[in-house]
């Protein structure tokens, strides 16, 4: 169902692609927006157990797009070094394809926001819980289930591996 990478010699092993997902702090979520226009939005996220979690407001373009079509992609750029004298960029990136849903179950939402909070604000359980409880009613959590993931790196970085 998913295309093979055209430049397969630059493809990262799956474990390295997943490591980039674990370590990254932001990426771009792409959805099918209004009137069939792509809608891509930068998002903070957390990856765990084959799923990516996001938080957002309870209304807006993103949620309307998800309700209309649950297919999505998410792209993370892990490295992006312009090498002007070589007329190239040394890069590493990952793109995940899958389905996204709005979490509605309280326990799923709570687990997702705790995981996200622990990644970005490791301030301790008491402080985390106080913050979550203070904003939980305004919070929407999204779960992106990965169906396919690929990572790619610049051929120059690939050559350094060998």
Describe this structure in words.
By secondary structure, this protein is an alpha+beta fold. It is 31% helix and 40% strand. It has a 7-stranded antiparallel beta sheet. The protein has 5 helices and 7 strands; from the N terminus they run αββββαββααβα. The chain has a single domain (8-150), classed as Pnp Oxidase, Chain A, CATH 2.30.110.10.
Q: Classify the beta-strand content into a percent band.
A: 35-45%
Average per-residue pLDDT, rounded, comes to 90
CATH homologous superfamily classification: Electron Transport, Fmn-binding Protein, Chain A
Q: So, CATH architecture?
A: Roll
How would the global form be characterised? globular
Provide the CATH top-level class: Mainly Beta
- SSE class: alpha+beta
Estimate percent helicity.
Answer: 25-40%
Number of domains: 1
Number of strands: 7
Strand order of the largest sheet: 2-1-5-6-7-4-3
What count of helical segments does DSSP give? 5
Order of helices and strands: HEEEEHEEHHEH
Main sheet?
Answer: 7 strands, antiparallel
């Amino acid at each position: 169902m998913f295309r093979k990478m055209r430049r397969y010699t630059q493809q990262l092993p799956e474990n390295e692609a997943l490591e980039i997902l674990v370590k990254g702090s932001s990426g771009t979520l792409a959805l099918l927006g209004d009137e069939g226009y792509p809608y891509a939005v930068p998002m903070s996220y957390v990856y765990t157990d084959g799923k990516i979690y996001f938080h957002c407001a309870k209304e807006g373009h993103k949620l309307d797009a998800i309700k209309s079509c649950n297919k999505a992609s998410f792209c993370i750029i892990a490295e992006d070094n312009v090498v002007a004298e070589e007329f190239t960029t040394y890069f590493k990136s990952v793109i995940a394809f899958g389905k996204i849903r709005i979490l509605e179950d309280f326990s799923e939402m709570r687990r997702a926001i705790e995981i996200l909070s622990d990644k970005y604000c490791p301030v301790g359980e008491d402080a985390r819980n106080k913050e979550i409880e203070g904003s939980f009613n305004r919070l929407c959590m999204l779960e992106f289930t990965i169906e396919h993931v690929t990572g790619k790196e610049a051929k120059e970085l690939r050559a350094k591996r060998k």
